[in-house]
Amino acid sequence: MRRGPVAGTSAAAPLIALDVVVLDTETTGLDVRHDRIVQIGAVRMHGAEIDETAVFEVTVDPGIPIPEVASRIHGLADADVAGKPGLAAVMPDLVAFIGDAVVVGHSIHFDMAVLRHEAERHGFVWKEPRALDVALMAAGLDRELVDTSLDSLALGLGVTITGRHTALGDALATARVYAALQPKLLVGGVRTLGETETLCRRATGLIARQEDAGWFARPSERPDFALAVLRTGSQRAIDSYLYRQRLVDVMSSPPIAIGADATLHEATRLMAARGIGCVIVDGTGGAPGIVTERDVLAVMADKGPEASGVIVRDIMSAPVITAPADTYLYRALGLMARRNLRYLGVTDAGGRLAGIFTLRTLLRERALATLTVGDEIAEATRPRELARVQAALPSLASGLLADGLDARAVAGIIAAEGRAMTARAAEIAEGELARAGYGPPPADYALLVLGSGGRGESLLAPDQDNALIIAGDYAGDLDSPEDWFVRFATRVNEILDRAGIPYCKGGVMAKNRAWRRTLPEWLDQVRGWTHKPTPQALLNVDIFYDFTPAHVSSQAGAELAETLRTEAVEIARGSLSMLRTMGESAGSHSPPLGMFGRIRKDDAGRVDLKGGGLLPLVAGARAIALRHGVLALATPERILQASHKAGRSQADAELLADIHGFLMRLILTQQIADIEAGVKPSNRIDVNRLGHQDHDQLRDALGRIELIRDILRDLLQGI
């Protein structure tokens, strides 16, 4: 299968999907400036999987006598290297073997330093690869660790070493240590290349000793991964058209249809009269079919003059391959490229065929060339393939922002990818259960994405917020570990966690019983929240009412989700006490402003733009929307629609919507910079790095968030 869209050495690249070369050298001594290489061994890894068929092993003539003390360690004497090629002859092969991979090793900066000096000695151009040291990783994970030798690390991790002190033997041992460290890194919240580099920098004592030994390049030559303001000008430009438009914006509607008993002659006459390249075949008693220009040509080539009398029912393709109307064009084009389609059906919210999208509406080659994220999610069969897509999002977001796309639209794309990953995780889990003998789903269901993912406002600090709704007639035991849905939900959450969307720290996941219910159970739970709006109930309500289906078992599953939404909104609308409490809670969040309107920063010069900025807007919009029965999920739409229904100031509503987008842009830009620097993305931005215009606009925006309190008071009046 072709690889996903991740740049190999991007800081956002997840370890689970990172291609690395584990390398070791044997030398004439430990002086990196003067000693020479006598043996190189390397092995390729994909994530935590060692590819022992992809190895590099070579013994070279160092050009100087091998000291006896060195021979006693690696067993190579002058006689063993006599007649072997010199290093200059093998360096091109080594560089080709490494390629764009990250190099991993034990005390790898020693090996890099020796190679650097050897390259200079032989006049070879050496571009030093990005490197990770397992000794620094281990020391970063455990600050009390004293012995970071390869033997000690292997012993502590249960790794068996064979072929010690041969270059390939040590490389393989290091590869096994690196693989064994990855679960520990995951537990420590370290998932990406950049985060691993940051972890390694914690081992300051060990780094100092390596620097004293001359293992690092001069500072001017060393890669600088320090935190910097995002330089959007350095990002690859992205044609954002495909990321702005959805199928509903460009489809032909309604689809042109013909009866199933019509002849090919009648179908071609209709196509010619309407200037279209396909026709929908209806009246088959089942799912509609489609006849395209390709089908016409194939029948004519086969039947000749008799082709005109062929019945379209007999040559149509069914069912029509479709995508929902709100699908972004980049994702639709990815699907069409994967399935080799020229025409794609477009369905409405009820799953009915509402239109046709054709590549004739776009210049196909130009369109596909702009894809940063295509249809790789649909092709993924395991978590590391999904992780590649997750890791591509920072680069995609950066390019789209540089192209001038509004941050809210970028957040919508990130959210769409998150929902697609959740859907694919569900498909993978279903397939695994079927192969394991547990059969298909025993009841209709919908897997829901909650919170920012459901609102379409996701940024780059993801976690899982999902839930499961199951048909009310399900007779299984949702409390039993043996239940199909328990197994399913547990596996979905596990796949997403491994793919780079971590488990929710608050436990809002379908694998937990509180978020796995039948439709009647969900409605009872919603009534319980509204009757007794405790602080915990309010937290649950806040995240629950933003849900949207990511994956459904069938049309009946989609109807389950829609029924839950409409009935849950009506329940909330009738609970005045809960709405009042929600409004009071939303209005209690104060913007981070001090005396004279100065922005309050922490010791690191950062300010949390979620707690004092986005949260009152998002929570306030939710409360207002529920009060007025607004079904929109996006925060700006909730504010605008609810204000319109209540006859309130549209100018104020539009201002708050703009502030929401501005705050999202600041957070998203900071997250991109943090990810590239190996810093975990959050909602805290470095105010000191803002330009004067953004700084002044932020201060003004935070001051105007008070408007949400006024709107809450007005729109919740009478409660």
From TrEMBL:
Domain CBS: 251-306, 316-373
Pfam families: CBS, DUF294, DUF294_C, RNase_T
Keyword presence, Nucleus: no
GO biological process, one term: DNA replication proofreading
Swiss-Prot/TrEMBL keywords: CBS domain
Database matches in SMART domains: CBS, EXOIII
Entry GO terms, CC: cytosol
GO molecular function list: 3'-5' exonuclease activity; [protein-PII] uridylyltransferase activity; nucleic acid binding
Record note on quaternary structure: DNA polymerase III contains a core (composed of alpha, epsilon and theta chains) that associates with a tau subunit. This core dimerizes to form the POLIII' complex. PolIII' associates with the gamma complex (composed of gamma, delta, delta', psi and chi chains) and with the beta chain to form the complete DNA polymerase III complex.
Function: DNA polymerase III is a complex, multichain enzyme responsible for most of the replicative synthesis in bacteria. The epsilon subunit contain the editing function and is a proofreading 3'-5' exonuclease.
Protein name, UniProt field: DNA polymerase III, epsilon subunit
Lineage per the UniProt record: Bacteria, Pseudomonadati, Pseudomonadota, Alphaproteobacteria, Rhodobacterales
